[in-house]
Amino acid sequence: MTEQTGNLTFGIIKPDAVRGGKTGAVLQRITDGGFKIRAMKLIHMTKKEAEGFYEVHRERPFFGELTTFMSSGPCAVLALEREGAVKAWRDLMGATDPAKADAGTLRKEFGGSLGENAVHGSDSEENAAIEVSYFFSRLEMV
Question: What crossing angle do the helices spanning 125-135 and 85-93 adopt, rounded to 10°?
Fold first, then answer.
């Protein structure tokens, strides 16, 4: 693998966007944003897998709703590379609430609500490494 610290992040095209046929449009925006897709797969998480992934939020009031939603249908998981990847991906995603997201962001364009907001992204380099390794082995990274 050739990525350096700060150049790799993790993203999910969530079930609402996949269900809505937006996967291709989101992928196009990702590549247009200067990201290389280092790994990608379409998965359908079980409730238990979603709970494991979002374990950090277990005590939050939205945990049950979040994990039910994330296990409600297929999603695309992605390892994304570019300089300053975490910040660049978060900027492209936009605010968590699509109603508050800036024009031109993925959540503004494809998100429907605070709970179903089209995409997920790592919030730090440390979490990016954890999240990438949750879904991808070293052999799956290209």
Answer: 80
